[in-house]
Design a protein that fits this description.
The protein contains 15 helices and 24 strands. With 509 residues, the chain is an alpha+beta fold.
């Protein structure tokens, strides 16, 4: 069936290209038409689905002008991504005069759109098959573990956030030498990235906070993802009780709902008055999970009111989406049919929530924050978020999946289009801007981001100076700020940033 479908796309495009008013069409002998390869058909499909379904599809040129079969790469998936990168650069954001998908760390590459081999769906479904940790350079010679999933190979081996990596596979040449990821000139960085993300076995030499060292050898394996890396409570006196939760991935509701319920039940039994949700490394995931987290946080009085609206392109609104329809069916894409209301979950009833964010806080994480901004006191602590107010359907293309922006959202106050991200401590986003401190474990009250929140809950104001600068070298903090986005790309180039709308939640016609 898929093969017939691909030939349908090819013949349709060929017909459109061949027909022109006032011209005589000369028949072409059948044996002179080259047989399309599998890659040709895949490239046609990437173009055709994007031209039909992308949020900014009107900016995409015709098939003849774009010529999708001209894009090549070292593999089929690389060729498709190169094509998609180009498609992503046509629509221009009038606020910046740059493409909506402009990525400052890699100009010309898509900031949002990507081709996947199925790994994203597996991971967001709640199963990972890696070492279970991530890392970042805190300084040129300071490589740190930034998070570890419980139950993963790293988690079972006792690896913790804040541990310094001093050697990988007995190689101590791991200092930061970036000159552009993938260029072959960043010897150390390429070695680190390949060892962590492209191998099945790794040996780490780690220095703990007490300066003792350990060696751990890890092998990749499948494990169930627990997106809650930490949940705890701080009794600050005078009736102030802060609940703190690190939420690292918006996995499917089937994976995350019971875990969220348990954490919030714990907060209720502890009499929590304020909540801090740590999203500093959360690149997003399922929209349905974002909605559920919002329903756990929002005040009871807001139940039944509008949470957000969803917007699609004119093809979806007018019912002219034959390719999408053949894959998924017919839906009502009108704004009214896709309005989402709050439906209070659990019994936590608070008036203020803090979110810890960074350049890795993206999409479903930003959706969660934006939905609550008109409804309660939302305070942001950290650095500017990723900036992704758009989301995807995962469209199967042969053995791959196409992710390209197909919808945008706005909260009950009409706020959206946050392509520049959320910057804490500004008029629109109350809070305080400060650096991440990867030398401290999650939940450590002396860790800069959390220390700000503890002080605010206790006194009603943030620290006058950035807390992270009081105990951490200024050069390191400057490095972290300047290189954060770049190292995030280079060391986590496979990290998902997005929000996925499950077609099963749409209203069918």
């Amino acid at each position: 069936m898929k093969r017939i479908f691909y030939y349908f796309i090819l013949l349709t495009v060929s017909f459109i290209m061949g027909c022109s008013k006032g011209k005589v069409i000369t028949p072409v002998k059948k044996d002179t038409i080259p047989t399309p390869t599998t890659l040709d058909l895949l490239r046609d499909s990437v173009y055709s689905f994007t031209a039909e379904d992308n949020l900014w599809n009107t900016a995409i040129p015709t098939y003849a002008v774009f010529n999708p079969r001209s894009f090549t790469g070292s593999s089929d998936i690389a060729a498709l991504q190169t094509e998609l990168d180009k498609l992503s650069q046509y629509a221009i954001n009038p606020a910046t005069n740059q493409p909506y998908e402009y990525d400052a760390s890699s100009p010309g590459s898509a900031k949002y759109s990507f081709i996947d081999d199925g790994s994203v769906g597996t991971s967001l479904g709640g199963t990972n098959g890696d070492f279970g940790f991530s890392l970042i350079y805190n300084d040129v010679n300071d490589l740190r573990i930034i998070y570890v999933y419980p139950g993963s190979p790293a988690g079972l081996s006792g690896v913790k956030r804040g541990y310094q990596i001093t050697a990988i596979n007995n190689n101590t040449n791991i200092s930061y030498d970036a000159k552009g990821y993938g260029t072959g000139t960043s010897t150390n960085l390429n070695f680190v990235s390949n060892a962590v993300f492209n191998s099945n076995t790794i040996t780490l030499t780690l220095k703990k906070p007490d300066n003792s060292s350990i060696n751990v050898t890890l092998n990749t394996k499948n494990y169930t993802v627990n997106p809650i890396l930490k949940d705890t409570v701080y009794n600050l006196g005078n009736g102030h009780i802060l609940g703190y939760m690190v939420f690292n991935s918006f996995t499917s509701p089937a994976n995350s709902k019971s875990l969220l319920d348990a954490a919030f039940s714990y907060f209720v039994t502890q009499g929590v008055t304020d909540l801090a949700v740590d999203l500093r490394y959360d690149g997003g995931g399922y929209v349905a999970t974002a909605e559920y987290l919002d329903n756990l946080i929002v005040p009871k009085a807001k139940s039944g009111t509008l949470m957000y609206n969803t917007y699609f392109n004119s093809n979806f609104l007018n019912g002219t989406y034959p390719l999408f329809k053949q894959k998924f069916g017919t839906f009502d894409f009108s704004v009214s049919a896709n309005a989402v209301n709050f439906l209070k979950a659990g019994s936590l009833d608070i008036k203020r929530v803090f979110f810890i964010i960074s350049s890795r806080t993206a999409s479903a994480s930003e959706l969660t924050i934006n939905n609550l901004r008109p409804e309660m006191d939302v305070q942001l602590v950290g650095t500017t978020s990723y900036g992704k107010p758009v989301g995807f359907f995962g469209i199967p293309i042969g053995k791959y999946y196409l992710y390209t922006p197909e919808f945008s959202t706005k909260n009950s106050a009409g706020q959206g289009d946050y392509y520049a991200g959320f910057t804490p401590g500004t008029t629109s986003y109350p809070g305080i801007k400060d650096y991440d401190d990867p030398t401290k474990d999650f939940g450590d009250p002396t860790e800069g981001q959390l220390a700000h929140i503890l002080k605010y809950v206790s006194t009603g104001s943030y620290a006058f100076a950035p807390v992270s600068n009081q105990n951490v070298n200024l050069k390191a903090r400057s490095f972290a700020l300047q290189q954060g986005a770049q190292t995030s790309l280079e060391l986590n180039h496979s990290k998902f940033n997005g929000m996925i709308l499950d077609k099963n939640t749409l209203k069918r016609k």
